[in-house]
């Protein structure tokens, strides 16, 4: 069994980004893009990839289809240093998902085919493998349709096996923020919503109130504030991190990169402000390149950024 720091259960797919399309997409016309990028997408995979690049030993479980897109996504994740030996490749009518992103000057269109991410189920998970790590993480709570009824049980099992745990729900596409999430939170050590998600889950418009309510329910609450930085709270202790000045070109994956930075330090036993500062740094780095993993894949860029900005 691999000697792992963190195991992750999540979705794995690619982002296809087409740049320079006209603002209006006329039917029946051949519309030409200026540039194309195919990059590792999906919150969970971006998180796992960047956590491994930071130097944690990461194992990833997912269900993908037996198709070329799934193979490329798997390759990309493995290239980052993630152990993908437990990813299940299932042939059938449902293929690996794909997100097509069309960035335009004033807005983006984001088109997603969820594919196998809606079908991953409890039986796809190797629990012995998951509990072989010190820490367990799950992202994109609302996208795991088939797994969702058993996510509380999954977290409970991880706690019974004495792992620490973390959760980043990301957005709920249905905007319902279901009651089952409350059941999961009792087994979560580090909860990492962004500001909007924190308010939605706490069912209040007021961020301070949301922080107060959520901090009572998890050991460590971390709230990501986009270009305003982030805050973390453990009991009555609260620390904040001001945003780093960067030339941000793409916010995609900043939240997942932040999670990777924070948890990389957390599993090493660092104090709260060190975890937060490291997350803030990783989130800022992510925004400097398109997509969620490119800034980490470019080793020169990644090493320079941390050397210049991280004062341990
Ligand atoms: N423009 C920026 N400048 C500096 N740091 C940034 C910027 N945008 C994001 N960050 C860093 O990245 C972190 C995460 O970003 P954000 O709040 O957008 O997360 P998120 O909404 O969960 O993102 P995601 O879309 O990846 O789920 C921020 O808390 C901050 O530390
Ligand atoms: Mg997020």
Give a verbal description of the structure.
There is one protein chain. α2 (68-79) links the parallel β5 and β6 (88-90). With 312 residues, the protein is α/β, with parallel strands linked by helices. The protein contains 11 helices and 14 strands. An 8-stranded mixed sheet has the order 4-1-9-10-11-12-13-14, sandwiched between helices. α1 (43-54) packs across α8. The radius of gyration is 19 Å and the shape is globular. The chain binds adenosine-5'-triphosphate (ATP) and magnesium ion (MG). Adenosine-5'-triphosphate binds next to α8 and α9.
Describe the protein's topology.
Elements: E1 6-9, E2 14-19, E3 35-40, H1 43-54, E4 58-61, E5 63-65, H2 68-79, E6 88-90, E7 96-103, E8 108-115, H3 127-130, E9 135-139, H4 151-160, E10 164-168, H5 180-185, E11 190-191, H6 195-202, H7 207-215, E12 220-224, E13 230-234, E14 237-241, H8 254-266, H9 272-286, H10 294-297, H11 299-309
Parallel strand pairs: 1-4, 1-9, 2-7, 5-6, 9-10, 10-11, 11-12
Antiparallel strand pairs: 2-3, 7-8, 12-13, 13-14
Helix pairs in contact: 1-2, 1-8, 6-7, 8-9
The chain binds adenosine-5'-triphosphate and magnesium ion (MG).
